[in-house]
């Protein structure tokens, strides 16, 4: 029997693509003999090539001419746009699935009503629902799909930890808490001053409770160097911290996130990479329906993520200044202790 050729489209931001990994895992686990391709922008190509659930990577827009029935039996568009919808329709891919939202659904012959704008479920759950609908249409039963969605062997993780310790001067026996203060700009974030206050607060609270103290790794991507340097300078010298600048490419930076015992960040790509690894995450989100903590929570296990947003008081809020850092600290330290997330490495 010929292997099914399935194309999955998620051609926007890094965080959005990472939240597609559960759906990709479900497709591959449910249809192990299928060939899964993804259409992504050049920015996420490196990560797509590392994804264990993907056989082939196509880059948008260069690969648009390949979106046809000669190359694919089915397409699953996780976020529909008119441009992509027209291409898959024009290419006569026989089975075309998308959410039943936006006018672009007219180009698809199978749609799933989700009402994502109401944000009543996480984005990765919406993606899983779409993948399940395609799998069932193809006559198969969806397999169980649980985190982690990106696994690295213990030997490789140990080697990554060894190399990063050597590069940054870290102690391999200590837990490493990563903090990414940058943002891709799609969601409001804490200020550098708030992140500094949070880091110091967490560290001092752990010290007061005689917990095993972490070393802090302040991460930055291209264009975020000034902010991470400012963050570093705001932290007292008695707190061990280093700056990790992503200078070796997105793939290397992403894989090193698995070495963290905690990732603290706003709603941005590194938070969602950590989620795919099932690294514990602390996320900060605006109180907007379209960008809520529920809608954009990472795809790690339920007990391995905690999130914060401004108090609503009956209205949506994008201003993150109203987040009480002292309350966040108490909840984070309690959560770390309760879920046994402060073990030695």
Quick structural gist:
The chain has 345 residues and is α/β, with parallel strands linked by helices. It contains 11 helices and 12 strands. It folds into 2 domains: 5-137, Rossmann fold (3-Layer(aba) Sandwich), CATH 3.40.50; 154-338, 3-Layer(aba) Sandwich (Rossmann fold), CATH 3.40.50.
Task: Explain what you see.
The protein is of the alpha/beta class and 345 residues long. It folds into 2 domains: 5-137, Rossmann fold (3-Layer(aba) Sandwich); 154-338, Glycogen Phosphorylase B (Rossmann fold, 3-Layer(aba) Sandwich). It contains 11 helices and 12 strands. The chain has helices at residues 14-18, 21-30, 45-50, 82-90, 123-137, 154-168, 192-208, 225-234, 250-256, 269-277, 325-338; strands at 5-9, 35-41, 56-60, 74-77, 95-99, 110-112, 176-180, 215-220, 241-245, 262-266, 281-284, 305-308. The strands form 2 sheets. The protein has a 6-stranded parallel sheet, sandwiched between helices. Strand 4 (74-77), helix 4 (82-90) and strand 5 form a beta-alpha-beta unit. Helix 2 runs parallel beside helix 5. The longest helix has 17 residues, at 192-208. It starts with a strand and ends in a 7-residue tail after the last helix.
Sequence-ordered SSE layout with sheet pairings:
Elements: E1 5-9, H1 14-18, H2 21-30, E2 35-41, H3 45-50, E3 56-60, E4 74-77, H4 82-90, E5 95-99, E6 110-112, H5 123-137, H6 154-168, E7 176-180, H7 192-208, E8 215-220, H8 225-234, E9 241-245, H9 250-256, E10 262-266, H10 269-277, E11 281-284, E12 305-308, H11 325-338
Parallel strand pairs: 1-2, 1-4, 2-3, 4-5, 5-6, 7-8, 7-10, 8-9, 10-11, 11-12
């Amino acid at each position: 029997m010929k292997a099914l050729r399935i194309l999955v489209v998620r051609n926007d931001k890094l965080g959005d693509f990472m939240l597609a990994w559960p759906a990709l895992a479900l497709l591959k686990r449910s249809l192990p003999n299928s060939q899964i391709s993804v259409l992504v922008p050049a920015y996420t190509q490196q990560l797509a090539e590392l994804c264990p659930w993907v056989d082939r990577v196509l880059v948008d827009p260069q690969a648009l001419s390949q979106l046809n029935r000669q190359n694919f039996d089915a397409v699953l568009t996780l976020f529909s746009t008119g441009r992509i919808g027209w291409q898959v329709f024009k290419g006569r891919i026989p089975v075309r699935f998308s959410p039943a939202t936006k006018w672009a659904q007219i180009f698809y012959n199978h749609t799933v009503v989700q009402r994502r704008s109401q944000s009543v479920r996480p984005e990765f759950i919406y993606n899983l629902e779409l993948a399940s609908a395609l799998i069932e249409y193809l006559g198969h039963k969806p397999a169980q799909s649980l985190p982690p969605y990106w696994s690295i062997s213990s030997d490789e993780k140990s080697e990554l930890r060894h190399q990063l310790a050597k590069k940054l001067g870290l102690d391999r026996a200590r837990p490493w808490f990563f903090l990414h203060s940058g943002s891709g700009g799609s969601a409001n974030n804490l200020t550098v001053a708030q992140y500094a206050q949070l880091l110091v607060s967490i560290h001092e609270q752990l010290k007061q409770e005689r917990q095993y103290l972490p070393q802090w790794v302040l991460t930055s991507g291209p264009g975020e160097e000034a902010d991470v340097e400012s963050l570093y300078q705001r932290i007292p010298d008695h707190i061990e911290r280093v700056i990790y600048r992503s200078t070796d490419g997105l793939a290397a930076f992403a894989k090193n996130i698995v070495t963290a015992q905690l990732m603290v960040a706003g709603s941005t790509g590194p938070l969602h990479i950590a989620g795919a690894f099932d690294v514990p995450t602390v996320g900060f989100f605006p109180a907007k329906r379209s960008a809520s903590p529920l809608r954009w929570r990472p795809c790690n296990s339920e007990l391995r993520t905690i999130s914060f947003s401004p108090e609503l008081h009956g209205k949506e809020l994008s201003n993150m200044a109203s987040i009480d850092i002292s309350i966040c600290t108490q909840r984070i330290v309690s959560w770390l202790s309760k879920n046994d997330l402060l073990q030695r490495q």
